[in-house]
Design goal:
The protein is of the alpha/beta class. It has a single domain, classed as Glycosidases (TIM Barrel, Alpha-Beta Barrel). Helix 3 runs parallel beside helix 5. It is globular. It starts with 9 loop residues before the first strand and ends with a helix. Keywords: Glycosidase, Hydrolase. Belongs to the glycosyl hydrolase 1 family. This is 6-phospho-beta-glucosidase. Pfam families: Glyco_hydro_1.
Length: about 475
Amino acid sequence: MARKFPEGFLWGGATAANQLEGGYLEGGKGLTSVDLIPHGEQRFQVALGELHYSEVKEGSFFPSHEAIDFYTHYKEDIALFAEMGLKSYRFSMAWSRIFPTGFETEPNEEGLQFYENVIDELLKYGIEPVVTINHFDVPKTLIDEYGSWRDRRMVDLFVNYASALFNRFKGKVKYWISFNEINMLLHLPFMGAGIYLGDLKEEERNQVLYSAAHHELLASAKITKVLHEIDPDAKMGSMLAAGEYYPYSANPQDVWEANLDNRDNFFFIDVQAGGEYPEWAKIKFEEEGIDIGITEEDKEILRDNTVDYITFSYYASRVSKADLSDVEVDSGNAFQGAKNPYLEVSEWGWAIDPLGLRTTMNGLWDRYRKPLFIVENGLGAKDTVEADGSINDDYRINYLKAHINAFMDAVEQDGIPLIGYTPWGIIDLVSASTGEMSKRYGLIYVDRQDDGSGDLSRSKKKSFDWYKEVIETNGQAARN
């Protein structure tokens, strides 16, 4: 007999500071890594850590600087979230808004007050705050002085930052997430972790990246310990850019390649949820001469401070093939692989695979046995504003409906505990991958264009009222 979908499920929406806040130097905020990534042809090179931010063309446009100006529109936006019926709102805090350079010993009060205002506004409407502590935000000063997360000294600075948040928001924030899509460090090093690689050789790159990974994993464990000490009722989650790798064929080589790709993708969460490095990783480090500088104390901290729940983003499944030379390659996002011939793709080439979400959930639950929380899922698409101002985004409704049905099946038929669902971006914001506004995800339209023009006015899309009904019926409207 299928389980009933749970009452109290956290239907919500998700955003990130660097993609919607704007006010990039307001209120004492310092520059952050994403403030240095331009729109246009050089964006991907900088995000990969191959082009230094100082070499970006003069006159380039930086979309994060104003974004959609949530910094001054937050009350209006949260009122719209409440009208939609959101039970939760996942957002991030910018490290450099709290510690402008990262080196300060005391937090910036203006920054703390801004986020407290946001949290209080959410609580006023009964919306549960779900806070990401680090969503692709590293203070520029720490990049310049330390080379970002390649330096172990970043750990204590991050603990100082997180501790300031826990002390200030104790009792107000129950759900925390340490690092957004922590595995993105290996795919887009500067975007994910502020790491510039330049022209390092592959073995040197791996040394830098896996050292940085260890420092982030250690920082995550340390702040989990601090959170449990400061606010025992609060919970810390990890976050994975998820998506199951399918073998391209029944060829054992393709099956094994998919196994390797999935294993690599689970690497960070294996440590955060399991408390130790997997054996294959230890062998890899030894064979490749990678020294992550792990100590016995580090091992103890990782073992004793695992996360309470697993959060993840899901946009698409992926396909593994041992030899990619004779097939079309999927270049839709940061994860390279073979193109799946059975799936349709979005305007930006991302595979659309609702059943893959259920498959991914089963894989995560079987592996970790910790409650799950889908904190990103959505469709980037171009929207047309009709003459009467309406936006008929049935394509987005169809996408969300199919994925909601998939995770409801996973809960009701597979018995997987799921805390909530916060589709990405509940309101239009800057695309992290392309820097575009035209790649819209929101259920709320924002008059803001790729070149920065627009009056920033907000309006509801057709999907707004549809999702409102889904929430009101605890998902049943998506079943119809």
